[in-house]
Amino acid sequence: MTYFIDRRPNAKHKSAVNRQRFLERYRKHIKRSVEEAVNRRSITDMERGEKISIPTKDISEPVFQHGPGGARNIVSPGNKEFLEGDKIRRPAGQGGGNGAGEGGASNQGEGNDEFAFTLSREEFLEFVFDGLELPHLQRKPLKSLEEIKMVRAGLARDGVPSRISITRSMREAYARRIAMRAPIKRALKEAQEALAAEERKDPVLRNPARVVELKAEIERLEKRIDAIPFIDTYDLRYHQLAAQPQPSSQAVMFCVMDVSGSMTQNHKDIAKRFFLLLYLFLEKHYEKVELVFVRHHTAAREVNEEEFFYSRETGGTIVSSALNLVNKIIEKRYPAGQWNLYVAQASDGDNWDDDSNICRDLLVKQLMPQLQYYAYVEITPHDHQSLWHEYETVAAQFPERFAMRQIVDAGDIYPVFRELFKRRMSQER
């Protein structure tokens, strides 16, 4: 049997290839540990790695051994308990141990703890956001700043070695050798035929000087053929690249958070953790996604990232103020024909009674026809209020592009986030 061992050097004497193979093999265990880690972390502690433990029994490898085979007779001196044909029972198992957590204490035997290793920040985030994507992301028409893709644009005689076309270069070399050898081979064939005719003559009529001359000519022509190079710099061809404008798949995510007086500090912490997950997800997987942060109570304001997460401003609740602001920003800076538009809203569901109907009309008539996706999370352990019921009407009209979920405590954040942004098989590319 032949064994192939990957000994390519990696940073810190580790094999990146083997590590990726290990992570893929135990993906189920690792993902479960990552989900638990996400639920117990604070809002400021989402970007570091994580220490993962896998039970020893789950990393055991199958082993083939040669057994004794056949029927065996064993003589046990001093046996007072068993007779011939008796079956020996397995010893009842306390202590001794084949691993961690297998029974009580013992003064003998050896065991192994769970296998523990540390995920890097990139690996941790990869498992956190595995299988997630922005729903219904579409290619939009070109903007003034076009997305450029380098594509092949024929062949050229000049270029860098990394873009050499081996097939075309060898074809050119073969054609050149045929073209250069053809007249020489014809002359060689004529000289060989003349020499053969001269040598077939009677010795009396044969011209020795002519024979010597023809042999010299044949030798010279053969050297000329051998001197033709197999490949020449003239034969080399290189792939030429040209910049080609591409449709842009740029997107903008509006993060809308309720900071009214009815939102307790616990509610705000849950909302911040949800938006922090969203922020990390977009930062990791998408290069051309802009974030717009909107906080609202009775009035809505566009704020920066730091103010969005840490400002203590509060007040009453008018949700439509935030929706009106989002609509104005879209009209001013993000036309729907050029951008993929997304909104993620977090609230406790409390709203001024007469305002919920206004929110519904704003969504149905103005926002939803422009948006790719709207995600609403309601952070409350209580019964839903008027805003939720009005949003249900919107969800019924736009079932594919409007999603709403309830979060009761911090443990619901990650499962709800995965439900809202899970990969859809019918995603339009």
TrEMBL record:
Top-level taxon of the source organism: Bacteria
Residues spanning the signal sequence: none
InterPro entries (UniProt xref): UPF0229, vWFA_dom_sf
Gly residues compositional bias, start-end: 93-106
Sequence similarity: Belongs to the UPF0229 family.
NCBIfam families, alphabetized: PRK05325.1-2 (NF003707), PRK05325.1-3 (NF003708)
HAMAP family reported in the protein's UniProt record: UPF0229 (MF_01232)
Name of the protein in question: UPF0229 protein HMEPL2_12200
The organism of origin for this protein: Vreelandella aquamarina
